[in-house]
């Protein structure tokens, strides 16, 4: 049997939520109410104890211990559950944006935090993210997940483009099952990110097509950054498997049309053409994940 400290915090939270759901289905109304009252009493007991611990830490800590507790996923969940998280929600949202900003910047884009008013966060997309066909996809799969993990009390993320648009806000629906009722740090939606593994053969200035979960994906290395696209040229409908990469330009081997991988695949020769980007994240271990299930 696994020791509690060795289990993934998300598994523990999922188990508690599952048991609470089973509790609601008990046929014995008296037993169901008694069990519910016990759970509520335990929550209040642990909450009161945690509140005293937090107060004692706040009186003696220079900030390092509070930050260490906030960085622990399980402890942070318990603190959020009782409204005791030591780091303000805005600071946590800013930290989450900082995690995904390198990915956006690698594509010539950025994101600006406009307002945090729980349960809503409002952002502004900048650069290539503004008006880019993959903006909504990138936002949902990267920024949204990061924010919900750091600040589970946030239920909606709204974004505006850099330039005024007919519809002022792009509403992003949160992942099912994530909400204020159970403020657990949500896991990534199942299947949203697919592991591509390491790319040791991909050197700067080169391209590589690899099949990920049955889908061909074009990987590029430009400088120190990695990019992923669907390997189809919208100009000639040919494959980009043998595409040439020179500097920051990707040239189709079939028709010679050039694309800018740093600007979300925008065509340098025909503005109406555009490669289809695939969101890509590189973990601290150097392994690459790509998002395959959401069309750009």
SSE arrangement:
Layout: H1 9-24, H2 29-60, H3 64-71, H4 73-81, H5 89-106, E1 109-117, E2 120-127, H6 135-150, E3 156-160, E4 170-172, E5 194-197, E6 207-212, E7 215-222, E8 225-229, E9 244-246, E10 249-251, E11 258-260, E12 266-267, E13 280-282, E14 288-290
Parallel strand pairs: 2-3
Antiparallel strand pairs: 1-2, 3-4, 5-14, 6-7, 7-8, 9-10, 10-11, 11-12, 13-14
Helix pairs in contact: 5-6
Report on this model:
This protein is an alpha+beta fold. It is 33% helix and 22% strand. It contains six helices and 14 strands. It has helices at 9-24, 29-60, 64-71, 73-81, 89-106, 135-150, and strands at residues 109-117, 120-127, 156-160, 170-172, 194-197, 207-212, 215-222, 225-229, 244-246, 249-251, 258-260, 266-267, 280-282, 288-290. The protein is elongated, with a radius of gyration of 23 Å. It starts with 8 loop residues before the first helix and ends in a 6-residue tail after the last strand. The model is unreliable at 164-191 (pLDDT under 50).
Radius of gyration equals 23 Å
Spatial ordering of strands, largest sheet: 1-2-3-4
- Approximate strand percentage: 15-25%
Arithmetic mean of pLDDT: 77
Distance N terminus to C terminus? Answer: 44 Å
Unreliable residue stretches: 164-191
Shape: elongated
């Amino acid at each position: 049997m696994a020791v509690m400290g060795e289990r993934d915090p998300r598994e523990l939270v999922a188990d508690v939520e599952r048991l609470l759901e089973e509790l609601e289905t008990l046929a014995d109304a008296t037993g169901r109410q008694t069990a519910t009252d016990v759970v509520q009493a335990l929550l209040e007991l642990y909450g009161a104890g945690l509140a005293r611990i937090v107060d004692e830490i706040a009186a003696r800590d220079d900030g390092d211990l509070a930050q260490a507790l906030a960085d622990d996923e399980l402890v942070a969940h318990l603190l959020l559950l009782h409204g005791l998280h030591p780091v303000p929600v805005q600071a946590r949202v800013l930290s989450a944006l900082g995690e995904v900003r390198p990915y956006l910047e690698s594509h010539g884009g950025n994101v600006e935090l406009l307002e945090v008013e729980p349960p809503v966060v409002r952002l502004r997309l900048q650069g290539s993210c503004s008006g880019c066909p993959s903006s909504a996809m990138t936002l949902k799969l990267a920024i949204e997940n990061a924010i919900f993990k750091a600040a589970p009390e946030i239920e909606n993320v709204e974004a505006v483009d850099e330039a005024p648009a007919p519809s002022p806000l792009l509403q992003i629906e949160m992942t099912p099952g994530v909400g204020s009722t159970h403020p657990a740090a949500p896991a990534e939606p199942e299947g949203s990110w697919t592991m591509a593994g390491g790319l040791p053969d991909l050197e700067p200035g080169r391209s590589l097509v690899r099949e990920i979960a049955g889908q061909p994906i074009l990987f590029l290395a430009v400088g120190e950054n990695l990019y992923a696209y669907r390997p189809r040229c919208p100009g000639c409908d040919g494959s980009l498997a043998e595409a040439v990469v020179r500097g920051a330009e990707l040239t189709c081997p079939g028709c010679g049309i050039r694309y800018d991988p740093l600007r979300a695949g925008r065509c340098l020769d025909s503005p109406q053409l555009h490669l289809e980007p695939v969101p890509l994240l590189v973990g601290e271990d150097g392994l690459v994940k790509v998002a395959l299930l959401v069309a750009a």
